[in-house]
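User
Class, as today's exercise, I want you to study this protein, comparing sequence with C-alpha cells, and judge whether sequence predicts the C-alpha cells.
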Amino acid sequence: SVMAPFRKPRAQSSAVCLLLGAVAAVLGIIGLAAHHTHQQAASHHDVIHHFHSSSSRLDVGSDTPVKLGGGNRAGRVSQHPKADRFRSHVRARVDAHKNADGDNLDDLRSADETIRSSIPVKTIREDATSHSVSIADQCGESHANTEYWGDVVEEGTVGLIRTPEECCRRCGETTGCNVWVHCGDDESCHGSCWLKRTDDPNSPTVHANGANVPWTSGTVLKDFDPTPGKGASLGSSEAFVALVTPAGRIRIRLKPEWHQPSSEHVARLADENACKGSCHLYRTEPGFLLQGTLRSFKVAANKDLKKGPKLMERGDIGWAGEGPGPDFFIYLGEKPADWLGYGHTVWGVIADEESLATVEKIVAMPSHTPGGPNTMRFLKEKMYFDIARD
C-alpha cells in the first residue's frame, strides 16, 4: 500500500507561525528603538556641536548675550521672498565667519582654537555723539570684493542693510565691533551685514577676495588693545580684585608668586574697567568648579603660561584648558585636585569665606545639561560681571 504523506499537526503549525510573528515583532521594536536612539544621539550631537563647533551661535538682543545660531531670532525673521535661499547661503558660509560663543567648551579645554576666537558679548549700541571722531570718519576706506575674517559680534541675519556705509555705521555704534562685512548681492547674500571683531583692526585678515566675492569689508578703529601684553603694576603689598556680579562681590587675591604675568593681566582688566559687556560666568559643576571668561574688548588676552606651581586647592583660580585664558575656573573640590595635575596656570585664590559663599550661591543657581545626562552643566542664564580693584 502507498504510505500517506506526512502532515504536521495543525496546532504545531500555528505555534510556528506565532513564534515567527513574535520574532518579527521583536525585531521591529528593536529597529524602532535603534532609530529613536539614533535620533536622540543626533539631537545630543547637535547640542554638543552648539557648544564645540565654530559654527555655533548665540541669540542677539539689546540686553542679552550675542548668540550666533543656526535659526533666526524671534522678532527678527526676514520676510523677504528669498529668505530661505539666504538662510541656506548663511549655513553654507558659516565656516567663513569665526563665531563668538563662550559656550563651546569641553571639560576644561576651553583654550583650544575655537575658544580663542570666542567673544560672547551683550549687543550694546553706543551713542554716536559720544565719539570724539565721527563714525563716518572712523569708517575710512572700504574694500569691495573682499571678505574680512573676525569673531562674530552680530550675525548677518539681523535686518537688511542696504549699503556698506550703513553697515559700517552699525559697527561703529555696536560695542565690540571693529570689522564689518556687507553684501549687496541679492542673488547670494541679500544685503547682509556681519559685525565682527579682531584684535587689531589696523591689520584685518582677508578671508577671501576676487571678482566672485560679493562682500565689501572695512574696519572701525575702536575696541582693541593698542598695547597688547602690557600688564598693570601690582605694588609691593598684596593685590586684590573683585568680580562684581549680580549675586555679590567675589574678592580675589592675586598671586604673582604663582604667575606674575597672569596676575598683572587681571589687574589691568580691573584698572581699565575692561570687562564691560563681555566677561561672564557660564559653567557650573557642583563640587568641582565655576567657570567663566575674562575676554575683553579693551585688553588683549593673556598669552603667558606657567605649569603649576601647585596642585589646585579649594578656592584656587586658574586658566581653563591648560591654556593662557581668557577662560578661567574657580576650583571648588574639597580635596587638592591631584587628578588635574600641574597643567593649569594658577594665578589667584578666593580671598574670603563671604566671597566663596557667593561662588557657591552662583553654582546653585538654575543650570542645565544641554548635551544630555552626564555632560557639561551650564548656567541657564550667563552671569555678566565687571571687575575692579579691591
Q: What stands out?
A: The CA atoms of residues 34 and 331 lie 39 Å apart. Residues 10-52 form the longest helix (43 residues). The helical segments are 10-52, 83-93, 113-116, 135-139, 164-172, 260-271, 353-363. Confidence is low (pLDDT under 50) at residues 1-8, 35-133.
